[in-house]
Amino acid sequence: MIHIENIRKVYRTRGRTVTALDDVSLHVAPGEVYGVIGRSGAGKSTLLRSVNMLERPDRGRVVVDGADMLALSERDLRVARQRTGMIHQHFGLLSSRDVAGNVAFPLEVTGTPAKERRRKVAELLDLVGLGDLGRAYPAQLSGGQKQRVGIARALAGSPSVLLSDEATSALDPETTGSILALLRRLNRELGLTVLLITHEMDVVKQICDSAAIMSNGRITESGSIPELLARPDSELARGLFPLPPPPVRPGTTIVDVTFTGTDPARFVSALARTYAIDADILAGAVEDVAGSLAGRLRLGLPGSPDANAAPLAHLREHGLALEVSA
Ligand SMILES: Nc1ncnc2c1ncn2[C@@H]1O[C@H](COP(=O)(O)OP(=O)(O)OP(=O)(O)O)[C@@H](O)[C@H]1O
Fold first, then answer.
1. Which tens digit of pLDDT belongs to each residue from 208-234?
2. Which neighbouring-strand residues pair with 193?
3. Any idea where the ABC transporter domain is (predicted)?
């Protein structure tokens, strides 16, 4: 649905040169919720804005729903942008217009007749749970309600793709949860593909099917969440399930096991059953990630890593990612 290939973007301002995107490629499949996570300045906004050409990459290729975005004329680009809705951290609502007027705005721009506009606005407000707030003004709304208006407006052009620019960063955790649940529902019910950028691991944990980690204008890790968690030394796993530094325990093998879709009790009891090992559980973080159980568990196995070669191989053979320290 979104194919970004080897894009590069360099900003040059007053003698300063910043490479915001350094050979970035990303592939978002139709119907998935894809999160790009990274620190401030990593290049996330530039990447997101390159999808609908709010920023034009210096080179590379961006294809959205079959349209080669860099090759489009201004007119065709306007049409392609309507198929790509966008929501923002600070909502971007017009304070002089009521809720219905804000949602109607893109429909006015594209010349939708008034009657059709009214029908569509009512339908969109119902969809985002604001059916009775059409006459309210943005100043009268909570942050969560404002973002719902932003989402309704972004969906006015019946887009196939929704771009979310830190949409929950200005919201408290509970409201964040309800907006993410709404995005997930729209993703499932409308088949909407969602590409979001965030600096919060919790957002990835709550709704993403796939993710990429960005740092200094580059993508350091990308793939589906189970794929990423299965990688040895996964940066995403460490971010999602932080554990304290490993303790020093002479004569013990410390192993951090990352798992997804497995009940951790199963591999701990398999070690006891097959190898008669009494593993100590030293730390752990287990959560529901995108609907399945995932986490990291730190085990202490008696003996050196060499002495534990067979049980460690057994764990790896069962698809678990391990980080071993003595
Ligand atoms: N219009 C611009 N002109 C010059 N430099 C820019 C411009 N936009 C972004 N940059 C620089 O490009 C780099 C990447 O910025 P970008 O906003 O894409 O990162 P980000 O990961 O979204 O960070 P944040 O979460 O703080 O917005 C930063 O060093 C930033 O200062």
1. 999 999 999 999 999 998 888 878 778
2. 161
3. 2-241
**Does residue 100 form part of some domain?**
yes
Residue 69: pLDDT over 90 = yes
Residue pointed to by tokens 């010349």: 111
Å from CA of 113 to ligand 1 middle: 39
Q: Decide which of 125 and 290 is more confident.
A: 125
Q: What single string gives the DSSP state of each residue in 214-267? A: EETTEEEEEEEHHHHHHSTT-HHHHHHS--PPPPP-TTEEEEEEEEESS-HHHH
Residue identifier of the C-alpha nearest atom 1 of ligand 1: 11
What is the rounded average pLDDT of the residues 10-31? Answer: 94
Residue 79 lies in a domain: yes
Which residue range(s) make up the domain with 266? Answer: 241-325
Round to whole Å and give the CA distance between 164 and 186: 13
Q: What is the pTM of this model?
A: 0.88
Residue of 9, 44, 198 to mutate, ligand 1, most atoms within 8 A of C-beta: 44
Give the confidence band of 187 by pLDDT, cuts at 50, 70, 90: very high
Residue 249 maps to which CATH number?
Answer: 3.30.70.260
| Assigned domain for 233 exists | no
Q: Which atom of ligand 1 is nearest to the CA of 166?
A: 25
DSSP 177-203: HHHHHHHHHHHHHH--EEEEEES-HHH
Residues 139 and 32 in one domain: yes
CATH code for the domain in which residue 165 is found: 3.40.50.300
- The structural domain count of the chain equals 2
